[in-house]
Each structure stands twice: as C-alpha cells, then as structure tokens.
Write a structure and sequence with these properties.
The protein contains eight helices and seven strands. By secondary structure, it is α/β, with parallel strands linked by helices. It has one domain: NAD(P)-binding Rossmann-like Domain (Rossmann fold). Helix 6 packs across helix 7. The protein binds nicotinamide-adenine-dinucleotide. One of its GO terms (biological process) is bile acid metabolic process.
C-alpha cells in the first residue's frame, strides 16, 4: 500500500492515534503534514518519528479557529501543492458527569473541537480535493457516535454529528471522485482512555481498565496501530468503492 508522492494531512498528530498514523504513512513513503495545538509537541513528535527534512510540515493550529484551519490548508498547498489524504482526527473527551450536571461551557468546548473543528477541516480541505478531483478523507468518530453512554453526553453528541457530516460530505463529493468515511473506534490505549478510567474508578484505575477490557469480546484495548491500519486502508485505492460509511473498530464491542 505505497503512498509514495501522496500528501497526507493529519490533525491531532501529536496525540496517540494521530502520531501512530503519521508513522504508518511515513513508512509507506507519504509526505506528511502534522497539525496540533503546540509547536513544541509537534517538534518532539517529528523528532521521535525521525521525520526527514523536506518530507514533512509542522503546523501549530487550533482546529476550532477557522483562520487556523485555512492556515494549515494554505501552507500545505504552498509546500506540497496538493492534499491527497486528510485524517480529520483531533478531538477531546470533555467531562464524565450526568447530563443534568454537565457544565454548559464544557459541553460547548467539546462541540467546538469535535464538530466545528471537523467541519472547518472538511470545508477547506474539500475545496482543494474537489478542484483536484481526487482525495480521501477519514474523520475520527467513535463507537460513541453509534450508541449512547451514560455520563458522556457532549462526547456522544459530538461524535454522532461527525457521522452525519461524513455522510453529507460523501454525497456532495462523490461527483468529484472524492471519498469521505468515518472510523468508529472503541477503547484505544491513549491519553483519552486515562480520563475515562479515572472517571470510572478514581481510586482504582486498574479495576476500571479491567472492567473496560471485559466489555470487549477480543479482551484487549485497541492499539493506535490498529487504528492506523484502518486509516491507511480507507486512504488507499484498495477502498475505492467505499464512501459515506461508518467503520466500527472495537474488538466486537458493539456486535452483540
Ligand atoms: P489524544 O488525546 O492522544 O490525541 C488528541 C490530539 O488532538 C492531541 O494531540 C491534542 O493536542 C489534539 N487536539 C485537541 N484539541 C485540539 C485543537 N483544538 N486543535 C488542534 N489539535 C487539538 O487522544 P486520541 O485517542 O489519539 O484521540 C484521537 C481521536 O480519536 C479523537 O477524535 C478521539 O475522540 C478519537 N477516539 C479515541 C478513542 C480512544 O479510546 N482513545 C476512541 C474513539 C475515538
């Protein structure tokens, strides 16, 4: 699955899933654009991954600010001339409290990152891809976009919105040969899960981890590389007849 000559933009690139996906694309010879909040975490990510000068671009940007999003799209075009793959992945989890106690400002901030950030990314990247008449977008939703979970109202609402944006964008972009899909992971071993574990059992995080593991038929957390493998498939021509679809990657969690 070579991505030689392809330009791949990843948001949330300094995080658990984003970084592993950048690594996987680089192994397949893609040029990569890493987008995340802080320049220093981007630089340490590039160093960890031994990225090669001229083959990558780092852009510190807040995906909730449309001007920042226009900025990373413009810089990518100026540097590499095109965008072949867009992994629209930055996200936050918010609080884990009942809806009736949910702080409204936190609810709004979750929607800002997880919905407005995804929307701005789609709006500006799809302009480039529709002009090119090619491209593949992968939005990071969650199994939280496919069901309800008590205590997680903002995150659930935001990920359901991502699924809807994906389907709409897929329909609008199909005439241009541009594909748009969702991935819907469950429990992946990254920083976000530390928040869920601490909220579930503040005094016994190991017990929370065990309980989350038992909810997964394959009896393990997902690894960031599991997610990267699916993203690469959806980015590649091997998935050329797949668009507008949710792709559950959850060790069987929602199969029952
Ligand atoms: P993570 O916290 O390790 O990574 C998220 C990254 O997004 C961080 O590097 C963070 O700095 C960046 N980010 C947050 N707000 C941003 C903003 N406003 N602008 C730019 N960047 C911003 O967590 P992760 O697990 O790698 O999460 C990646 C995606 O996967 C998220 O959308 C998350 O909702 C989704 N997801 C994660 C899990 C899981 O169990 N870890 C499950 C389902 C879905």
């Amino acid at each position: 699955m070579s991505f030689s000559g392809k330009v791949v933009v990843v948001t949330g690139a300094a995080g658990g899933i984003g970084k592993e996906t950048v690594k996987a694309f680089v192994e397949q010879e893609a040029k990569v654009v890493l987008v995340d909040l802080e320049q220093d975490t981007l630089e340490s990510t590039a160093k960890d991954l031994n990225l090669i000068e001229g083959e990558y671009l780092l852009v510190a940007a807040d995906v909730t600010k449309e001007a920042d999003v226009e900025g990373y799209v413009t810089k990518t075009k100026e540097t590499f001339g095109r965008i072949d793959v867009f992994f629209n992945n930055a996200g936050i989890e918010g609080k884990i409290v009942p809806l009736t106690d949910y702080p409204s400002d936190v609810f709004e901030s979750v929607l800002n990152v997880n919905v407005m950030g995804v929307f701005y990314g789609l709006k500006h990247v799809l302009r480039v891809m529709s002009d090119q008449k090619s491209g593949s977008v992968i939005n990071t939703s969650s199994i939280s976009g496919l069901n309800g979970i008590a205590g997680v109202s903002a995150y659930i609402a935001s990920k359901h919105a991502v699924n809807g944006l994906t389907k709409t964008a897929a329909l609008e972009m199909a005439p241009y040969g541009v594909r748009v899909n969702n991935i819907n992971p469950s429990t992946v071993d990254t920083r976000i899960m530390r928040t869920f574990e601490s909220a579930a059992a503040p005094d016994d995080v190991a017990a929370a981890r065990e309980a989350f593991t038992q909810a997964i038929p394959l009896a393990r957390y997902g690894k960031p590389e599991d997610i990267a493998n699916l993203v690469l498939f959806l980015a590649s021509d091997k998935s050329s007849f797949i668009t507008g679809t949710d792709h559950r990657i959850d060790g069987g969690q929602l199969a029952g």
